[in-house]
Specification:
homodimer; alpha/beta; Rossmann fold; 2 domains; two-stranded antiparallel sheet; 14 helices; 9 strands
C-alpha cells in the first residue's frame, strides 16, 4: 500500500428539498454576494431557479448571474465569469447544474484570485494559491465535481481540453437532491453511468499497487451504478435508485478510491478529451467508445485485475468476457460503443491521436502513450 | 435513501515515516504549544516518543505531557489534562496512541474551552461549542477515532461509559503509519478486528433503511478486516495487510457507512460498554461476547439482511450459518465468545443489565432495549 494524503473538506447536504436552504448555508458561511452560475436555462423552466432566488433573497444574499455554460464547458465563458466576479465584489461562486457548471465555477473561483491568465493553471504554468469559496446545487450526478477539487475546461481557441486539481477549489458545501435529477434524459443518464464507471476503472486497472480494499470499494460503486441505472431507465422517478446512483457517483471520484494505490492514471479520459475537444462529443459518450477499445489493448498488462473485474462484476472467469459484457452493457443502456456510432470516420483518427498525444505530454503520460499507441487503441474503436 | 449531512474535515497522512513530520504539520497550522497525550509509556520503549519530540523541537513547538491514559480511558485522567492545558496556554492536543488516547485528547480539547464540568457533554447537559484543535499519531487502528468526532470515556466515579460526538473534535490531522502498529499483540489485533466489524454491522442490521450501496461498503470493510487479520496473525510484519486493516478500520466509523441509512443504532456497543465499565473488559473482547448473542436474538427482526450477510461474507444462504461462522471466526482469532470466557458469572448479569439499561436511556434506545430484553440477550452470551 502506497503512502497518501487524504483530505476532503467538502460538506455534503444530501436529500429532498435541501436546495431551499442554500441561502441559509451561505449566510452561515458569512457570504453576502455570490455569482450564480448555471447552464442553458432549464432551471428556469423547472422552478429550481425560483427556489434558489427565493432562498437567497430570504437571507439577504445579493447575486449576479452567469448563464449559458455548455456541457464541455469553454474557457471563454470562464473569462466572462471572472470579469463579472471581479467587477461586482463577488464573495463566492454558486454553481447550479451538473459537472460542467461546477467546473466552470471552480475555474472562475480560482481565476478571480489570480492576476494572470487562468489558463496558466491548466498548462502547469502556475499553481492555484487562493480561490473564492464555491457552493453547488447539483442537477446531474456523474463527475463527482461536487466533492473534489478537479475542473476540466476546453480552451475554445486552442481546442485543448485540460484539467486542474486543487483542494482550494473543493466546494465548501454541495447540495445533492436526487429529485432534481429525475428529469435527466435517458441518454444523459447512460453517459453519466459510463463516466462514473470510467472514474472507477481507470486507476483500478492501471495502478501498479491496488489494495484489495480499494478494489472492493470500486466494485461496490460499479455494481451500484449498474443496478441503479437499469432501474432508472425503466422508472426515472425511482427516488432511491436515483439517490444511490448519485452518492455512488460522488464516491467514484472524491479521492477515496485511489487512496494507497500507486501509479494509476487516466488513459481513457485522456483519449476521450480529444473527442470532446475536437468533435464536441458528450464526455460519457466518448468514454463509452474509448473504454472497450482501451481495455482490449491494455488487458495483457494487468491480466489478474481484468480477471477479477470479470468475476466480481459479471460473475465470469474469463477476462475477455468481462470486457465484452461491459461493452454490451454500454450498448444496452444506449451509449455508443464505436467511433462509427458517434459519426467519426477513419480519416479523423489521425487528428484525434495528435490531440490526445498533446494531452499525454501535459499529463506526463507520453512515455506510455505515444501517438502510435493511441492510434492503435483508436483503431480498435 | 434517507437525507443526510456528510462532513469530515480531518486530513489523513497515511504511510511510513509520516510521524516524523508531526512538527511540520503543527507549524503549518500555526500551533506553537501542545499537550502531548499518551498511554503507558510503550512509545518511550519503541522510539516513537523520541521521534515525536525531535520533530517538535526541530519546529520550535513547545509541549507539556500527560501520560498514563489507560484503555477504557477514565474521566479523572481527562480532568488532569484539562487542568494542565488550562494552566499552560496549550494551543492544541497531540494524541500519540490508540483510540483511548485519542478519545481522552478529544475530551480534553472540548473541556478546555468549557467553563462547566466536561462530563456535562456526555450526559446531554451541554453541547460542545468550541474545542482546541487535535492532532493524532496512531499506534493502533480500530476505533476510527482518528477520523471522526466521537469520544468514549468512563466516569470512574459513577461507572458510566458514555460518549460524545461533534465535528468540532474531529482531529485536524491524523497520522496513520501502519509500521507503528506492527508490535500490537495478537490479542489486541483480534479485539480490534472485532471492534471494526462491530462498527460496521450495528447500522447494517438495525437500520430501517439501508441502501445496497452502503451494504456493499460495509461488506468491503468486513471482508478486508477478515482477510488482513488472518494474514497478520500469521505474519505481524506484513506491511500491506497492516495498512489495509488500518484504512478499512478508519472507513468503518468515519461517517461514510451510515450515510443515507435511517434509524440505525448501536445495541452491541451499548451492552458492551457495561462490560468495560463494570469489569474493565477490553472493548473488542466484550463486543465479541455480545455480538453473537445479540445477533441470535435480533435476526428475526431483519432476516433479509442477515441472509445477505451470510451470503456476502461467508458464501452461505442460511442466516444462522452466517452468525455461527462469525462466532467461530471470533473464536479462531482468539477473541472470547461467552461471558464465561471473560470470567463473568451468571449472578453478575443482573448488574450488567441495570448498567446497560441506563446507557439505553441516555442513548434514547430504552423503548427497544428494556432491562428484560438486555437480560435475554445476556443470557444467550
Amino acid at each position: 500500500m502506497n503512502k497518501f494524503t487524504y483530505y476532503n473538506p467538502t460538506k455534503i447536504e444530501f436529500g429532498k428539498e435541501k436546495e431551499n436552504n442554500i441561502g441559509e448555508y451561505l449566510k452561515q458561511s458569512n457570504i453576502k454576494k455570490v455569482l450564480l452560475v448555471y447552464g442553458g436555462g432549464s432551471i428556469k423552466k423547472n422552478g429550481l431557479y425560483e427556489k434558489i432566488i427565493t432562498s437567497l433573497n430570504r437571507n439577504n444574499i445579493k447575486f449576479e448571474e452567469l448563464s449559458g455554460v455548455v456541457s464541455n464547458p469553454v474557457l471563454s465563458k470562464v473569462y466572462e465569469g471572472i470579469e463579472l466576479a471581479k467587477n461586482n465584489e463577488i464573495k463566492a461562486i454558486l454553481a447550479v447544474g451538473g459537472g460542467s457548471v461546477v467546473d466552470s465555477a471552480k475555474t472562475i473561483a480560482a481565476g478571480v484570485k489570480y492576476d494572470g491568465d487562468v489558463w496558466d493553471f491548466f498548462i502547469n504554468k502556475a499553481q492555484i494559491l487562493k480561490a473564492l469559496p464555491i457552493f453547488t446545487v447539483m442537477t446531474l450526478s456523474a463527475t463527482a465535481s461536487e466533492m473534489n477539487g478537479n475542473a476540466v475546461i476546453i480552451n475554445d481557441d486552442t481546442k485543448q481540453k485540460y484539467s486542474i486539481s486543487s483542494v482550494l477549489i473543493n466546494p465548501t458545501i454541495s447540495i445533492i437532491n436526487p429529485e432534481l435529477m429525475a428529469t435527466v434524459s435517458k441518454e444523459y443518464l447512460a453517459y453519466s453511468a459510463v463516466d462514473v464507471i470510467a472514474h472507477c476503472i481507470e486507476v483500478y486497472f492501471t495502478a501498479t499497487i491496488h489494495p484489495h480494499f480499494n478494489s472492493r470499494l470500486v466494485e461496490s460503486i460499479i455494481k451500484t451504478v449498474i443496478e441503479t441505472t437499469e432501474i432508472l431507465l425503466k422508472n426515472p422517478n425511482d427516488y432511491d435508485a436515483r439517490a444511490e446512483f448519485a452518492w455512488a457517483a460522488t464516491q467514484g471520484l472524491n479521492g477515496l478510491t485511489p487512496t494507497g494505490t500507486k501509479d494509476g492514471n487516466f488513459p481513457n479520459h485522456m483519449i476521450e478529451h480529444s473527442l470532446s475537444a475536437l468533435f464536441n462529443v458528450a464526455h460519457g459518450a466518448g468514454l463509452a467508445v474509448v473504454i472497450p477499445a482501451w481495455m482490449k489493448w491494455y488487458k495483457e498488462k494487468n491480466i489478474s485485475q481484468f480477471k477479477r473485474f470479470a468475476k466480481e462484476i459479471f460473475n465470469n472467469n474469463d477476462e475477455n468476457v468481462g470486457i465484452e459484457k461491459l461493452e454490451n452493457w454500454f450498448n444496452k443502456i444506449g451509449a455508443p460503443i464505436t467511433l462509427n456510432d458517434i459519426n467519426i470516420s477513419r480519416k479523423e483518427i489521425e487528428a484525434l491521436a495528435d490531440n490526445a498525444y498533446e494531452t499525454a505530454k501535459v499529463w506526463g503520460m507520453d512515455t506510455i502513450y505515444s501517438k502510435e499507441i493511441i492510434l492503435k487503441i483508436l483503431e480498435k474503436a
